[in-house]
Amino acid sequence: MGREVINKYVTIKTHIDGAPQDSDFELKTAALRLWAEPGSNDVIVKNLHVSIDPYQLNRMKGYSSSHRTINFAVPISPGMDIDAYGVGRVVASGHPEFEEDDLVVGLISWGEYSVVKGGNTLRKLDPMGFPLSNHVGILGFSGLAAHGGFFQVCKPKKGEKVFVSAASGSVGNLVGQYAKLFGCYVVGCAGSKQKVNLLKEKLGFDDAFNYKEETDLKSTLKRYFPDGIDIYFDNVGAEMLEAAVANMNIFGRVAVCGVISQYTDSGKRAAPDMLDIVYKRITIQGFLAADLMNGYTDFISTTQDYLNDGKIQVIEDISQGVESIPSAFVGLFRGDNVGKKIVKIADE
Ligand code: NAP
């Protein structure tokens, strides 16, 4: 009937409306039998690596317009398990498609073990020789958001001028690298000198700047793009989006991947000059990676080839142990992370 373990997991104490703090979270324990009723379709997973993503903050709010949009954005109630993307190993299965010891990727949880009901948010994982953490980031949803967001939403042409915000982050660093490999001119912004150096020296960005040192973002972007921006890949929203729109060229495209500066401040808004939108015929399109699955095969094969040929760099920021989840998450909103933030829960 399976052995019993004490499962440690992270929950929120109350809804979070503002910047998250470590004290908003608590580590709970509960006894868990590593057994699944045959025919139940339940899968018990030992979590190995879990993803730490900004969108989870919107789920933790008392109210967010995101809550009713798509099933992975549903609200999280205080005390509840927090489901999150990640990689784990099956320890018990009542589902015909999964067996003990299978490696799986999909929606697990911020804890040591996950009970996945119905198993339909999981799939078997063949790591194909890549570290398991890569399947959480570059070969997971960050990679898909970057690749699909850039190629399907921005529809780039070679030589176009691309601006990326939160450019040293998980999605941003990949957008910049894909855009360079495709043949665009790429400038990124990030929140520290060390991040700016990484973009220019390791990731091949044509240029980069620290937005925290700039006082007038419109003129900053004019300085970096004297001939205008063709594509803006937005991860932050608010003032940066306004400044980018002011500097866009005719028929420019803005892909709105996320608006992290607005997640912690519900009063913040972007108010781009709509005359720019009309007369420059600018497209602003929000998207979710889940909508881009038709480009998945292309994304995975291209990215694996780039990895095998050493053409793309993997930037990961990994903390150890379930106890580090709250600070890893809080750090996203302070710019602590460089590249994909992951918590490694256990060795393989
Ligand atoms: P990330 O960029 O790895 O981490 C967040 C980064 O955002 C921080 O390191 C920080 O870097 C920057 N940041 C934090 N607060 C900020 C603020 N107030 N203003 C400007 N920058 C701020 O996270 P990610 O997972 O790659 O996500 C990036 C964005 O894409 C988020 O908005 C996220 O919600 C979105 N996203 C969307 C999809 C989708 O399907 N549409 C999928 C994945 C992610 P600095 O040091 O540079 O400030």
From TrEMBL:
Gene3D superfamilies: Medium-chain alcohol dehydrogenases, catalytic domain, NAD(P)-binding Rossmann-like Domain. Residues 18-343 form the Enoyl reductase (ER) domain. SMART domains: PKS_ER. InterPro entries: ADH-like_C (IPR013149), ADH_N_2 (IPR041694), ER (IPR020843), GroES-like_sf (IPR011032), MDR_fam (IPR045010), NAD(P)-bd_dom_sf (IPR036291). Keywords: Oxidoreductase. Pfam families: ADH_N_2 (PF16884), ADH_zinc_N (PF00107). GO terms for molecular function: oxidoreductase activity, acting on the CH-CH group of donors, NAD or NADP as acceptor. The keyword Oxidoreductase applies. This is Enoyl reductase (ER) domain-containing protein. It comes from Vitis rotundifolia.
